[in-house]
Write a structure and sequence with these properties.
The protein is built from four helices and no strands. The protein is mostly helical and about 90 residues long. It has one domain.
Length: about 90
């Protein structure tokens, strides 16, 4: 079965699914059944990945390797599903 996450580059897919599964399993379940997120869901993903990113800042507030991966995953998510292309429903 294909999911919307298959549209993300492979190197970011696992971290996005992992973080959503840990922090909002209900959102992950909904997204697994859709071809793209709603605007509200996109905002929730931004919040979740943004929070995870800030938890992975090292010395001098520079991202750790994991933090950089999360940041790049968020960028890939927003590139694939920009807000302008999403409905708010």
């Amino acid at each position: 079965m294909t999911t919307m996450f298959d549209d993300l580059p492979a190197e970011f897919r696992d971290v996005v699914v992992e973080l959503l599964g840990q922090r909002d399993p209900e959102l992950l379940g909904a997204l697994l059944k859709q071809s793209k997120p709603t605007l509200e869901q996109q905002e929730a993903v931004i919040d979740i990945l943004g929070d995870a990113f800030t938890e992975h800042l090292g010395a001098g507030h520079e991202p750790t390797v994991r933090g950089a991966l999360i940041d790049n995953a968020l960028g890939a998510f927003l590139t694939r599903w920009p807000a302008e292309e999403l409905a708010d429903s």
